[in-house]
Amino acid sequence: ASALVWFRRDLRVDDQAALYHALRQSRQVFCVFVLDRAILDALPRADRRVEFIIDALRSLDAELRALGGALIVRHGWALDEVPRLAAELGVAKVFYNRDDEPQALARDAEVEQRLARRGIAMQGFKDHVVFERSELLTGAGKPYGVFTPYKNAWLKKIDPFYLKAYPVLRHAGALADHALAQGVPTLAEIGFEPTDLHASLRGGSGPAEALLAEFLQRIDRYDEARDFPALRGPSYLSPHLRFGTVSVRRLAREAHQRQMSGSRGAEIWLAELIWRDFYHQVMHHHPHAMQSAFRPEYDAIQWRSGPEAEADFTAWCEGRTGYPLVDAAMLQLNQSGYMHNRLRMVVASFLIKDLGLDWRWGERYFTEKLLDFDLAANNGGWQWAASSGCDAQPYFRIFNPISQSEKFDAEGRFIKRYLPQLAKLPPKLIHAPWLARPLELQACGVELGVNYPRPVLMHEDARVATLARYAVVKSRA
Ligand code: FAD
């Protein structure tokens, strides 16, 4: 029989679960990606992610063609396109990799029903994470709510079987070309404009391989470098994990092997991949947390609202809070679509626990801007910072934005990259310029309120207000 593989967040040929199973089970395998208007129509006309996807599709199409196949690309509504194409091609079955986001689950269930009406089967596979859903449960059969025991269980269960690559190439003979596969449309053809997507952030398995090779040279130092945004510490692989242009099994295998031979950097990096699995299983077991607080008592918090709160939110979005590390971080996000993990924690804490704004506002802004936006990880990160999430930091732990800056960007090197007007400030003045004497600032070419903003608030006052705001939680917990 023939089959259709529906690609979504798994845009590669190598070690691809659904593709492998389709090739094993079918005489002829067609491949499709739908540029889904249910998602695309809501986006701004210039969106770095759309450009990343187009890149990745071109690369995928070329990889498939080299093996005798091709990618059919449709621009329309996935709910209609997938069943229609499956019928047109006369396939017996549609293969796909599972996506546990609530909206994706609803979409897939609907597609499955529509296919069933035409007598076509649909089958899903695990591909996006190492362990999914209920594969890891506590001794009592419950999902894990705390990361460390989850990580220990993950490490205990892992063995070469789970990390083995699916040998797609061995079965590639069943890949089939089709007259409907007419190449990948340009951005303009689907109504989008080119963006400033940085050369190092292009989509496709080639760019992913290049980043990985470069990272593996320095993975042993990851533990020391990862917290300092001015250094090249992390892997920058997150958009590739998001769109599946690299296999998570491959990454976990590289890290696990090095951890076994004593690399501390690899051990810590593997733990980050485990956090990713952790947040995905949280999403599976607690889909309500994608909209409201994981711990319901935190929904009683009264966040600031009204015009002043909105103006402060805009200042945060635009990198105009007057706190240099926070502002530089937001400019990194706005200018590249990426933000360093340490800085995500700093700016999230600032929005919630300094500005007193609802964490969902920040979550939404990240959703719009991040190239690596991932519902499970983003929601997990925001609820961690808000103290309302699964294994979150306690509510009374409030990052001090000045000491975070002194600790993780001591010389101000990262800050100066994004705020050149502060380039002449010495390290002792750069973390909180308003504490300097006006003459000192003037000598460095800085004039507060003119070429760099005055601080929107004083951290110590905000801290007191936040503890009062969170008191409602203590009384309900
Ligand atoms: P590396 O340090 O090289 O880590 C390797 C991989 O591990 C990452 O690519 C990512 O897939 C995974 N990872 C690392 N840290 C985490 C984590 N805390 N939770 C889950 N997975 C992790 N990550 C996203 O992929 N998408 C998001 O939308 C996202 N939003 C976040 C929002 C907030 C408020 C916070 C605090 C964190 C968020 N993260 C998110 C997690 C983390 O910041 C990014 O995964 C990381 O910065 C990506 O850069 P990297 O690939 O260079 O990371």
UniProtKB/TrEMBL annotation:
Domain Photolyase/cryptochrome alpha/beta, chain residue ranges per copy: 1-130
This enzyme's EC code(s): 4.1.99.3
GO molecular function: deoxyribodipyrimidine photo-lyase activity
Matches recorded under InterPro entries: Crypto/Photolyase_FAD-like_sf, Crypto/Photolyase_N_sf, Cryptochr/Photolyase_FAD-bd, Cryptochrome/DNA_photolyase_1, DNA_photolyase_1_CS_C, DNA_photolyase_N, Rossmann-like_a/b/a_fold
Source taxon at top rank: Bacteria
Family to which this protein belongs: Belongs to the DNA photolyase family.
UniProt protein name: Deoxyribodipyrimidine photo-lyase
Lineage, highest ranks first: Bacteria, Pseudomonadati, Pseudomonadota, Betaproteobacteria, Burkholderiales
